[in-house]
């Protein structure tokens, strides 16, 4: 047995807990890649220089009687329940969290199943309240989280769907909001900013620009002019320059980007 796995198991027994920090289970997995015993694939990957393929697991060891046997839900020797939930495909043992195996995702998801549907284009299980109300991006779940750069599809951390359709880990999304409001991939607003835009309207109205700037605009209707694009609607418009922000004339968002190096005076048009 791998020393690290035995030590992890001993610490769990001392604390009156089964399994590890990742899963509550009454058995150890026998890794087909190295024949070592670990509580779960995550514990294995942490201590080894290779990854455990959960789908190839054939045998487990009971934590009570230590009998090695074929993977199943209950010990054939002492009847220890290895997991309230058991998937014979993923070889996932855990306490009951209303899990279900999604054939399209190819892995188990935390349910209950009736609260989710599988979007075939996004290739991901999403909450029912997003059916017909989310922007689909093909195979979006097969991309890494743009914040932590770790896998989203097989992650134990819940994924958060942004209005633009991109995915972040929920924890990464919450951290991102402490620093900004835009999707790190496409710069679209990651939440409803309408209330803030209206507050910015008031601030702009109460902050007149110096006279030399009052007739300056940023023209995005000309190819050769200084360009501003709206990150929310991808629209182009000619707007009056203001140091606090330049408002899109199409969707009224201030989530705009300026490119180029000069402005055009209204008097010169």
UniProtKB/TrEMBL annotation:
UniProt keyword list: Cytoplasm, Metal-binding, Nucleus, Transferase, Ubl conjugation, Ubl conjugation pathway, Zinc, Zinc-finger
Pathway: Protein modification; protein ubiquitination
Name this protein carries in UniProt: RING finger and CHY zinc finger domain-containing protein 1
PANTHER family the record matches: RING FINGER AND CHY ZINC FINGER DOMAIN-CONTAINING PROTEIN 1 (PTHR21319)
Domain CTCHY-type residue range list: 82-144
GO biological process: protein ubiquitination; ubiquitin-dependent protein catabolic process
SUPFAM superfamilies named among the record's database cross-references: CHY zinc finger-like, RING/U-box, Zinc hairpin stack
EC number: 2.3.2.27
Enzyme class: transferase
One GO MF term: ubiquitin protein ligase activity
Domain RING-type: 145-186
Parts forming coiled coils: none
RNA-binding is among the record's keywords: no
UniProt catalytic activity: S-ubiquitinyl-[E2 ubiquitin-conjugating enzyme]-L-cysteine + [acceptor protein]-L-lysine = [E2 ubiquitin-conjugating enzyme]-L-cysteine + N(6)-ubiquitinyl-[acceptor protein]-L-lysine
Pfam families the record matches: zf-CHY, zf-RING_2, zinc_ribbon_6
Subcellular location: Cytoplasm; Nucleus speckle
Protein function: E3 ubiquitin-protein ligase that mediates ubiquitination of target proteins, including p53/TP53, TP73, HDAC1 and CDKN1B. Mediates ubiquitination and degradation of p53/TP53; preferentially acts on tetrameric p53/TP53. Catalyzes monoubiquitinates the translesion DNA polymerase POLH. Involved in the ribosome-associated quality control (RQC) pathway, which mediates the extraction of incompletely synthesized nascent chains from stalled ribosomes: RCHY1 acts downstream of NEMF and recognizes CAT tails associated with stalled nascent chains, leading to their ubiquitination and degradation.
UniProt xrefs under CDD domains: RING-H2_Pirh2-like
Domain CHY-type: 13-80
SMART domains: RING
Oligomeric form and interacting partners: Monomer and homodimer. Interacts with AR, MDM2, KAT5, PLAG1, PLAGL2, COPE, UBE2D2 and GORAB/NTKLBP1.
A GO cellular component entry from the record: nuclear speck
InterPro entries to which the protein is assigned, alphabetical: RCHY1_zinc-ribbon, Znf_CHY, Znf_CHY_sf, Znf_CTCHY, Znf_CTCHY_sf, Znf_RING, Znf_RING/FYVE/PHD
Taxonomic source organism: Camelus dromedarius
Ubl conjugation in keyword set: yes
């Amino acid at each position: 047995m791998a020393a690290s796995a035995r030590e992890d198991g001993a610490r769990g027994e001392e604390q009156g807990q089964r399994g590890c920090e990742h899963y509550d289970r009454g058995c150890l997995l026998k890794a087909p890649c190295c024949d070592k015993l670990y509580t779960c694939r995550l514990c294995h990957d942490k201590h080894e220089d290779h990854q455990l393929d959960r789908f190839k697991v054939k045998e487990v060891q009971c934590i009570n009687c230590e009998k090695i046997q074929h993977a199943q839900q209950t010990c054939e020797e002492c009847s220890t329940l290895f997991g309230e939930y058991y998937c014979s495909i993923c070889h996932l043992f855990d306490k009951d969290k209303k899990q279900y195996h999604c054939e399209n995702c190819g892995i188990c998801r935390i349910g209950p199943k009736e609260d989710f549907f599988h979007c075939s284009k996004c290739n991901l299980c999403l909450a029912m309240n997003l059916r017909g109300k989310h922007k689909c991006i093909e195979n979006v779940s097969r991309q890494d989280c743009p914040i932590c750069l770790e896998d989203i599809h097989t992650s134990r951390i819940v994924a958060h769907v942004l209005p633009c359709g991109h995915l972040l880990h929920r924890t990464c999304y919450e951290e991102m909001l402490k620093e900004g409001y835009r999707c790190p991939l496409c710069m679209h607003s990651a939440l409803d900013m309408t209330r803030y835009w209206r507050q910015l309207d008031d601030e702009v109205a109460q902050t007149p620009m110096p006279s030399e700037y009052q007739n300056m605009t940023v023209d995005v209707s000309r190819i050769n002019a200084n360009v501003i694009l709206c990150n929310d609607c991808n629209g182009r418009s000619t707007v009056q320059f203001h140091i606090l922000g330049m408002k899109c004339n199409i969707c009224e968002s201030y989530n705009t980007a300026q490119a180029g190096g000069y402005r055009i005076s209204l008097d010169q048009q």
